[in-house]
Each structure stands twice: as C-alpha cells, then as structure tokens.
Amino acid sequence: MSDRIAVAKTYKLFIGGKFPRSESGRVYPVTDDKGKFLANAAQASRKDVRDAVSAARKAFPGWSGATAYNRGQVLYRVAEMLEGRRDQFIAEVSASEGSRHAASTVDAAIDRWVWYAGWTDKIASVLGAANPVAGPYFSFTVPEPTGVVGVLAPQRSSLLGLVSVLAPVLATGCTAVVVSSEERPLPAITLSEVLATSDLPGGVANILTGRAAELGPWLASHADVNALDPTGAEDRAALARDAAGTVKRVLNVPAEEPDWTLRPDITRLRRYLEAKTVWHPMGN
C-alpha cells in the first residue's frame, strides 16, 4: 500500500483562451455527492467578470464574421474532442451528480453539441426570409448574432445542462461568458480544457467558476453584455431589474431547471439572434 500523499488540484478560470488565476486569489473546495474532497476551484471576482466580457467582446467580430460553415466545423471539432475525453467526463459527472446514468448523460451532451453544430449553416435559411413587397424592391430579412451573452449555467446538470445553454450561443455567432455550476464545476473546467485545445478562437467562450449569486448581478448590469441567460440563478427578477439599466435581452426561462434530456429545438437559437431587414431597388 502506497503512503504517497496525493497532490490536490487547484483549477483556474478560462478567459480569453487562457487559464488565469482569479484576480482575488480566492479558491473554494469542490466535493463529490458524498462530501469527499475532489479539488479546489477558482472563485471568480467582479474583475474576472469584466476581463471575461472584454475577451468576449474582442472575439465577437471574428467569430460572428466567420462563415456559418466554418463555425460549424469548429464546433464539430469540439464534439470530437469531447468524445475523446468521454471517460473523464463520465467520471466527473458521476462524482458531481452521483448519477447511475453518467455515461448516457455524457453521450447526450456530445450528441447535443453535434446537433447545435449542425445548425450553424441552416439558421439563415430557416429564420431568414425574402419578403414580398409592393414596389420595385427586393426585401430580405436575415438573422444576425446579438453579441456577447452572459450565461448562468444550470446548477444541477453539470455537463448536459451546460452544453445545452452554451452550444446555441456559439452556434449563432455570439460569444459567451459562462458562470458554471457552483457545487459541480469540474465538468465545466474540463470542457474549458477541451475548448482551449480545439479550433475555437480565444475569447469566444469564457468559463468562470464561483458563486452565481455573486457574479450574476455584475453580468446583468455590465453595459457590454447584450443578452443574459439566468437559468442557473435564484433571484431572476433582481437580475432582470439589473439588466434593464442597459436594455439587454433577458431570456425567459422556466422557474424550475428543465429536463435537459428532452429533445432540443431551435428556441434557444432564436433567442440570440436579431432580425435585420434590407431593402434594395431592382435594376432596370
């Protein structure tokens, strides 16, 4: 029997494609469903939120300006890498959620990512339109990404729920700042490692660990955040009031965390898109 003392892991944040420590220097212990210590996670601060939003804004022009085909290929590459680390995700989901169905949950998360990746080059044809007009004009309506989206990830579903709220943001061409599940952050941390080593440009997805109750209001009130998904928040009414000051879009989500195993639809894709209508005169 080995008497070696295991080295406890202390994970970092994921901002701008890099892994910085929290500006505050704070960490907190992460335990499994039975209370056994697993690792330390960084506890993000207000400054970390600002840094993540800045990184997301900087990455937005390049990501939204990429072709839909290219975005789909990048996201599909993420799914390939998720598949490659399937065993690690199963172990972490099992430890975090105590689920006997960890393997099927991870498989569903990978399939969900592939599903949204497949929508990147279909959004325009499904949600856009050629508008009938009475006059010598062409009129087109095309969907455009909203911008930077703040996401408070589900608290209970540490991977499938996380993928279900993050993937549609990226598929539309938006960039994201995500606050992971506070008590179950390890799958989100591993996902950030996947994103860092994939083709996803730095800053497109930023993942913070810490307290949603602390970080949520700063995301909601930040003037450079264009939309907010409060799925993992407790006081959503307060976040909506904070968001009103900068007139940002706040997603209307169910009071109870949804059943993420249900088949997805394009509702979440619609929520991160703006309709742009263009008129053009017909030539002679």
Can you summarize the main beta sheet?
5 strands, parallel
- Assembly annotation: single chain
Strand order within the widest beta sheet: 7-6-5-8-9
Gyration radius over CA: 20 Å
Low-pLDDT segments = none
Number of helices: 10
* Morphology: globular
Give a verbal description of the structure.
With 284 residues, the protein is α/β, with parallel strands linked by helices. 41% of the residues lie in helices and 18% in strands. The chain has helices spanning 46-65, 68-84, 86-97, 102-117, 123-127, 160-171, 186-196, 212-221, 236-244, 267-271, and strands at 27-31, 37-42, 129-130, 137-145, 148-152, 175-179, 205-208, 227-229, 249-250, 273-281. The strands form three sheets. Strands 7-6-5-8-9 form a five-stranded parallel β-sheet, with helices on both faces. Strand 3 (129-130) and strand 4 (137-145) form a beta hairpin. Helix 2 runs antiparallel to helix 4. The protein is globular, with a radius of gyration of 20 Å. 44% of the residues are buried. The mean pLDDT is 94. InterPro entries: Ald_DH/histidinol_DH, Ald_DH_N, Aldehyde_DH_dom. Residues 33-250 form the Aldehyde dehydrogenase domain. Keywords: Oxidoreductase.
Quick description:
By secondary structure, the chain is of the alpha/beta class.
SSE topology:
Layout: E1 27-31, E2 37-42, H1 46-65, H2 68-84, H3 86-97, H4 102-117, H5 123-127, E3 129-130, E4 137-145, E5 148-152, H6 160-171, E6 175-179, H7 186-196, E7 205-208, H8 212-221, E8 227-229, H9 236-244, E9 249-250, H10 267-271, E10 273-281
